[in-house]
Amino acid sequence: MKKILILDCGVGNLASISASLKKAGAEPRIVSSIILEEDFDGLVIPGVGSYSAAFEKVDEERERIMSIAENGYPILGICLGLQLMFNGSEEGKPSEKGLGFFRGLVKRIPVRRLPHMGWNNIEIVRKSVILNGLANGAYMYFVHSYAPLDYDAEDASAFTSYEGLKFPVVFEKGNIFGVQFHPEKSWQAGLRILENFLRLCGGGASV
Amino acid sequence: MGLTKRLIPCLDVYDGIVVKGVKFSNLKRIGDPAELAVKYMEQSADEIVFLDISATPKGRETMLEVVEKTAENLFIPLTVGGGVRSVEDFGRLLRAGADKVSVNTAAVRDRSLIRRASSIFGQQCVVVAVDAKRVEKGWEVYVKAGKEPTGLDALEWIKTCEYEGAGEILLTSIDADGTKLGYDVELLQAARKSVNIPIIASGGAGSLQHVYEALTKGGADAALIASLLHYDQYSVLDIKRWLMEKGVEVRL
């Protein structure tokens, strides 16, 4: 069974990400600090709440997260966890630099009705290992008011549309993956994404 | 394509059992909350709401166990409410596996609870439940399960909730609740004009047409359904298919 670390950023519902990873076939472990010597196959950075609160934890663990990334282990960022993979966010202070796995900035979505909350579908724009097997137009559960609106097109694999604005919601580059929605709350479509992620962790799919 | 209207089964939980009663009397046992939640998820419910109606310390402890057990197998959002009084109550329910917590009376008593919970746990998990009753001019907020008037104007109150950091409003019409004569569409329309955060319509659904009206004419983002689902009169999927045929965007 794939051993997956879930980084506890101090906020958010870790029970549900843990339960859904179990359902997808993993052995998840919630950790508040990463010990590199321990046995694991991949890392999930979840996160709901405010950027600054989650930033603090990610910043503490920055070196170890970078080391995991450099060693080719798959990392999945969810919602705020994805946003922390960019260079920074309008929601945080300019000094609160993100992990920088993806170039770009997280901004407040310029529409009237926020948060963007509920089930919305994704438009898959290129072949994607993390979205393998999902129908174009699959519904995912979103809750957010910020999104990476400044990004490199080559990193984005799927988009959603809300209030007339189309923006990217799935990112991938090598062994780094990020989704703006909550796969752990998106039932079958979400579980499929977690299964895809697990398939990339350890075993044959080395990166 | 786009954001869909949500259909949210609401389960009244009394000492760990889902019950159905009219105005809190003649409670009938419907079943196990965790099992029913999963059943509705499989029928493509968009979220689940548990409402603890026991309002006793023992009931609240049981509710935490129910939430823990449910969260193991439920992969759609779960909101839990009933008797929530403090930031600590929010924390306990979220740690047990709830995604959102709904608060009613305690928020009216001390509106800073909304801001405190929102700043600690995030706006997305703070649902303010508002029970509104028609008065001569507009609607008045009632608390204590709809028994106690507050003097607050319902539309002003939901604006305050949004300002304080609520993520959603669960809006129940006391007049319509339990009547099966339809949601209070005028209340929903007025609420829609007052705030930008999502509004969940509650109280009064007796037919599929009622749900349709709340989501279209009323402009609600979601509809809470309870009695329509009990005794398997309809499945969530039946309701959604019907709504889709009528042109409402839903997720099947």
Write a structural description.
The complex is a heterodimer of chains A (207) and B (252). With 207 residues, chain A is α/β, with parallel strands linked by helices. Chain A has a single domain, classed as Class I glutamine amidotransferase (GATase) domain (Rossmann fold). Chain A contains five helices and 13 strands. Chain A has helices at 14-23, 51-60, 62-70, 80-83, 187-200; strands at residues 2-7, 26-31, 42-45, 75-78, 88-89, 104-108, 116-121, 123-124, 139-144, 146-151, 156-162, 165-173, 176-179. In chain A, the strands form three sheets. Chain A has an eight-stranded mixed beta sheet. In chain A, a hairpin with a 2-residue loop joins strand 12 and strand 13. The radius of gyration of chain A is 15 Å and the shape is globular. Chain B has 252 residues and is of the alpha/beta class. Chain B has a single domain, classed as TIM Barrel (Alpha-Beta Barrel), CATH 3.20.20. Chain B contains nine helices and twelve strands. Chain B has helices spanning 33-42, 57-71, 87-96, 105-109, 112-121, 154-164, 185-194, 208-215, 236-245, and strands at 6-14, 17-22, 25-31, 48-52, 78-81, 100-103, 126-134, 139-143, 148-153, 168-173, 199-202, 222-225. An eight-stranded parallel beta barrel of chain B has the order 1-4-5-6-7-10-11-12, surrounded by seven helices. The longest helix of chain B is centred in the N-terminal third of the chain and has 15 residues, at 57-71. Chain B starts with 5 loop residues before the first strand and ends in a 7-residue tail after the last helix. The A-B interface holds A 11-13, 15-16, 19-20, 23, 48-50, 112-121, 123, 137, 139, 141, 143-145, 161-162, 184-188, 190-191 and B 1-4, 6, 41, 46, 68, 71-77, 94-99, 119-125, 167-168, 196-198, 221-222, 251.
